[in-house]
Amino acid sequence: MNHSVKKSAEKTGEPSQGSHHEQYLTFRLSKEMFAIGILGIREIMEYGELTSVPMMPTFVRGVINLRGSVVPVIDLAARFGREQSEINRRSCIVIFEIEGAEGRQEIGVIVDEVSEVLEIANADIEPPPGFGARIRPDFIAGMGKVGQRFVIILDMQQVVDVEEMAELAQLQDDSADLLEE
């Protein structure tokens, strides 16, 4: 069930209307709708077997082998401070690239269900709210107006900040060492 995001975007049948519109992949996570820009997305895969990695933060569910590359997989719900995602038949892993200190890196995120690719006009994107969101404000790039509702547009560079996740893994490792003493 590998999907090319570009093919998904073509299926929407919506013409590109210049630089004032951006395309976003929408997905559900714990009954909430989120969106991420499609430019960094490489593919969407059916949830499969993960290899767990000891001593990682709880939101790092494991790694997958993607055409010979080791790709870490993050549970977005757990990353947002919620319970780990319950895997079901609609669960997917969205693979995308981020820019890290060591160059570009592929990362997978677990989502409950992929919805669709939407075009959202830049004029229909509001700044992140100062309060009231159930996730960290720095994870939110904006609030996209879609019809009569808003969708939270995530800043994936912040959500999967590799240096922050490495620091969290180190803190967890240090805590385990202290407990053993």
TrEMBL record:
Compartments, as annotated in UniProt: Cytoplasm
InterPro entries: CheW, CheW-like_dom_sf, CheW-lke_dom
Region (Disordered) residue spans: 1-21
Ubl conjugation keyword on record: no
Protein's UniProt keywords contain Cytoplasm: yes
Principal subcellular localisation of the protein: cytoplasm
Annotated protein name in UniProt: Chemotaxis protein CheW
Native organism: Cellvibrio polysaccharolyticus
